[in-house]
Batch of 3 targets.
Target 1
Amino acid sequence: MTDDILVVENLAKRHGAVEALTDVSLSLAPGQRLALLGHNGAGKTTLIKLALGLIAPTGGRITVAGARPGTHAARAATAYLPESVAFHPALTGREQLALFVRLAGEPTRVCGPLLERVGLAHAADRRIRTYSKGMRQRLGIAQAMLGRPRLALLDEPASGLDPVSRHDLYALIDGLAREGTAVLIASHALTEVEARTDRIAILSAGRLVAHDTLAGLRARAAMPIRLRLTARDGAADEVQARLGGERINGAAVEILCAPQEKMDTLGRIAALGPLVADLDVTPPGLEALYRHYSGEDRT
Amino acid sequence: MIRRILAIAGIEACIAMRNRWVLTATAIMLMFALALTFAGSAPTGSLGVDLLTVSVASMTTLSVYLAPLLALMLAFDALAGEAERGGLALILSYPVSRGEILAGKGLAHLGVLAFAMTAGFGAAGGAAAMAGGAGNDSLMALARLIGSSILLGAVFLALGYAVSALAGSSAGAAAMAAGLWLLAVVLYDLGLLGAVVWSGDGAFTREVFPWMLAANPADAFRLWNVAASEGVALASGMGGAAAALPGWAAPISLILWPLAALGLARAAFGRMEP
């Protein structure tokens, strides 16, 4: 599609003998939010640096707003929030933001409203040295929102933030997306991305192993549902003998069953009557889903 | 382009002031220059030159060591440190070229150096002139000293940026900068001295040695200040090598060096992957 802001085609990056990225293809349309997941070292930051034009690919193609990354046009269209931003501690928030405003070619009067929007107006004239981690991240978001970017690349935006700051951060990101910015959020854990992302891409050892909506990922993974039964005193052996599954400790049995077998299994459990004291049903969580796609549970 | 260079220069100047770099550099220059001027005031009568001339000669020797040192200390962390903090990648995500970043930082740092040199040498020179008199010649020598010190500083600022881009880490850049300083202002001269002793009055001492002196920016600085003023040459005892060279050699070397070093720094920065 021609109106995609970020287009990645068969992208590859090799550092010496190490394949940092292999044959990665994905695209991002205006207003779309993509979560890019993967372990540390899976290639997320490499992909972002390629999109910024800081490094050159060894294979494939990548375009930002129709231009080659690193060109004036591509950089003008892109906002970036590095992982754990370290601004200069001797500057005030307003001074640091003013530098980015000038580099972006915007008038400096946008500084005030922008700092207000990220909730930093009260600390604008304090040294960044005195800022908390959350405040520094807000300043990072403020510079990323400068000049209505068409593409925002956010590297671990929520790392190290408390739940309240994280919620505020995701609200700001949602605001960006509503204004038409294509947002890419890189993170090392699915649970970090509580924001309502539209699609999820999972990188594992430099390869794209999944690229779908959350519902799509769930359906495709067909991961088992976990049933945990607590047996009455002394009945655990009999429960295991009649239902199968695995003994967890003295009194509990765990059964994994496919989604379509769930009701059958529940029926059989109900038939055991007084042998069963309690029952927990756990659908596959986000974390388990992520582990499934990144290949961690196939050992 | 100018707008972006000035934006970076402005922020760097602000940082230099907040870090008390401007204050430190100026205090160091002022202290050494004043101390040398008054400690070195003894030979005035015997040489028959005014106190300012003697003072300029001593301060020339001081500047050979201090200008490269201050410049390297300002410059070594400029790129490596910022890359380590992650700030360089962020700046480079804006529509600003690497050349503009380098120019902005260079402008600010050169401003700091120029201020420190002018304040330090100017104050010491002024004090010497008041205490022991000054002629047109010695005032010219003082102006030349300040101007050429700034040029010498510019050379090592640019070399410092090159080191900063090549080293990859802040600590590595510091080590490389220290090595560079030692090589350029101490070991190079020692090596030449050894070669001169070995050659005696041979072809090397007469033909090659002066040119090798002029090729090193620190020695070119010394030669220029010495050759241009008879009084200073007399007071510093470096007239021999200066006389063997055409008058333009040292100034040309000191003017070409900053440009070459800046080109080197730009090339090194271009290869850096932040």
Target 2
Amino acid sequence: MKVFIIIPAYQESSSVGAVVAGVRSYAESVVVVDDGSTDGTGEAARAAGALVLRHMVNRGYGAALTTGTAYALAQGAEAVVHFDADGQFEPRDIPPLVSALSVGRPSAALGSRFLGRAVNLPWLRRLTLKLAVIFTWAVSGVRLSDAHNGLRAFTREALALMHWRQDRMAFSSEVIDELVRAKIPWTEVPVTVRYTAYSQQGSKQGKLPALKIVKDLFFGRLVK
Amino acid sequence: MSLIQFIILAAVAIIWWRLYARLRSGELTWLEFVEWFALWLGVAVIVLVPEVASYLAAWVGVGRGSDLVVYLALLLVFYLLFKIFIRQEKLARQLTSVVRGLALKEASPPPAPSRGSKPEVRP
């Protein structure tokens, strides 16, 4: 299967190279979307062997993933995997995720750290993630074990049915909404998420990211 | 006419003049012009005949005319704020599509592997 891995990256020059090197052997192509970084993230990714798409200005997590996914589809990808640039995910979780997809049909595989392992997960983050699970259940009507996990995979056929509009972190909620709307079969796959001091800097999302997500979801629905 | 009435009416006149100029230059549609004109006409009427506000206030069940004016003004401000939020979201999406278009157009491939070496590809 022609698998493309998409990695959105903003100011991740210190981690993106190792992440690209770690996932390279699992895919036909690794695409890093440098989301307007000023610290040499794009160069580090390219040196590690990734194809780099560059957003001239920062547009957010969802916007970067949508750009990368559009590129992968244009290049004939049969499956697309979303991965993070901060080193939280394990590259070896990619093959089980891809094997969980039904080839040639609309299908999605969602990583779950609560079915798998969440290493050093801070209690406040655990609480927010659990609230997100309840929020997703209430709003999208889907009962997931982990609602905001950035490790996920889709078949080409699934991507053709989905329409993503959220530019920022609300993207993760929108993905679930779109799976439901387009009636795409999905499955959860256990993955490991490793929290490190680096991945926990968290300053990029600003204060109260959860509230921002709810606000984005609300206004996002009002704009066609 | 009191000084405050004069100041507000002068401001309304300037706003009407600006609205007309924007209509002529095509920045406003006729419908938008009429909406804004009517809003400021309402302000002018209340300034000239304040009893109108008191009468309307009594009619809708609000104590004083000036209270009604404040409530309506607040509602208007919230409505405008909401419209600005929506417009900003639309602009953000348009900006994203421009940025995305440029990124896809200028896609740069990774450095070519050295001769003889094949990248290992696992399914």
Target 3
Amino acid sequence: MTKQIVFALTLLITLGIFGCTAKRIIRFFMLTKPAFPVKDFSKRLVVVFTVAIGQTKIFRRPVIGLFHALVFWGFCVILFGSVEMVVDGLFGFNRSLKILGTVYNVIVASGDIFALIVGLSILIFLCRRLFFHIQRFSGIEMKHISHYDANIALTLIFLLMVSLQAMNISYVDLQTANHLTVSGIYPVSSVLSGNFLGFPSEQLNILYETFWWTHILLIFLFVNILPYSKHFHVFMSVPNVFLSRLEPLGKLPNMESVTKEVKLMINPDAAFQVLSADAEVARFGVKDVDDISWKNYFDSLSCTECGRCTSVCPANITGKLLSPRKIMMDVRARMKEKGPFLLKNGKSFNDSKSLLRTYISEEELWACTTCNACAIECPININHPTLIVDMRRYLVMEEGSAPGGLKTAFANIENNGAPWQFSPEDRLLWAKDITLKTK
Amino acid sequence: METQKINIPVIADLFARNEKPEYLFWVGCAGAFDDRYKKVTIAFTKILSYLNISYAVLGKEETCTGDPARRAGNEMLYQMQAMQNIERFSSYEIKKIITICPHCYNIFKNDYPDLGGNYEVFSYIELLDQWINGGILLIKKDALNNPLITFHDPCYLGRANGIYKEPRNILGHLTGNVVEMKRHKSFALCCGGGGGQMFKEAEKGKKEVYMERTEEAITTNASVIATACPFCMNMLTDGIKYKNKEAEIKNLDIAELITQSLGL
């Protein structure tokens, strides 16, 4: 009974802290702008099954991708065991879900094997980060804190797997020593069991309880650390895939506010009707974090800074400042900085900083070729180019600021209908004197 | 061998005669003004005439789609251009559009519908592939003497619209020697010309994007770099020039390879 009460209290504290964090993040979402209506559920489920469950995009890098996929699938299976632990802890049962029979055996057996696989994969990830120079783990945006962040999360996952495996081993040992049935199948733990720690059988119970508590407390800790780390990815990535932009990568979102103005220019008679309806004049494009859409913010929270986007960016590869990963990290950091003040002091809050310029320079934005290599590469369907274009929209339409060559191209399009200075009268010059050879 | 002069049909003239073409052939600014790309426009119109396709161009009534403005953030200018084009298309009752520029293709196909412009939009690559597969366009494989060709995927055909198979199918009919660059299809590296870059100086860096791509193309030892986009052609032609490889490597558009093999 004491165990149940202690467990319930711990769970309550965990959920309480998590609830506060979630509330804070949801309030930040309230500061953002609409993106697109979430519909087409069947299409979205297909994307979840391929990109998230099937890990199709992570396999664009097959070797290291496989390790990530194994960790992901392992997490899914192991989650089942964690849910069982919560039920057991609350109601004082032991292996409560064994009523599922064969299904239980299969899941527990996979979980036991995956604990080993995930543990080993995490060791590989840690070694890669600590002892090898992986190009995409460096970059101007990758500060010391980003590396600590990664290593802490990986260590924590490693400890989770060690405690899980130890719990399973001691469970098998405990049951065997007391001549009780072992619920579930443990292909790895059975091999490692057999009292290898040399514990007397009467103390096996203490050993098992210790590992049980270590594992569940680590989970509770993990849950509450994640939202403050780049590994918030663990929670956000699958929902982010579900909320993917479903349009072709080449499509940019239309700006209705501009459409309204353009229609006014074409048909000035409608002017006064529209003006009266338009009380608040919205800013064109994105200057600061309260101009971004909820999807941009969702993207930034889901990003785990893997750097696949930056490693394929033509601008970044050729030494320009632009790094798509940095754009996502900047959005997240700026919301963390400005969000609380916006919530406290209202929309008029101004700290004379902004996402554009304080965090992201014009030089970075103008280096983008909108080639969409970053967007197609992102394993969780983050879309960087639309946000980059949104910031360009602010620069061009609110400030009239653009590189000289582009200003000339704009002027040419306006004056002579082509980005270069040619007269429309000359558009058919190519068509003179074309001959076709016939037999 | 006889030659026959082709007259490029202009839509206003056809309308005056109460005729309606099946396709609008959208030439694009590069196709109309860029000296190198004009040759691609001519090659494609030769194929259209050769196959007796019912088409017309807008001629002097054509204007920029607004794509470079849009990708560079000038939404206002883009929408002005788009509305103007949509109005013109309606007045000529246009249903089907062919483009030889992937940027024009993408903006008609993906962006114009939001402003009420809904058309069947075709990249010339899609149609050429259809015509070859349908047996309408017959190509002899040995006509070009089996050159080693590598294809550079334009971002706005490939990643933006998923057209990867079609250009490769066509090349497979033109030669038995197609070689892929290390980064190809959805992994392809941009030429560096999209998103408005074509019209501005590159930002400070250690290299030009087109040089990075040209070097990759050169390592395939291909004698032809095939492209399907005016910006890619411009960028890669510059790259070949800077690498002093003009004698060994030709940068040709897929339409030009077809007219060469047909001897048009």
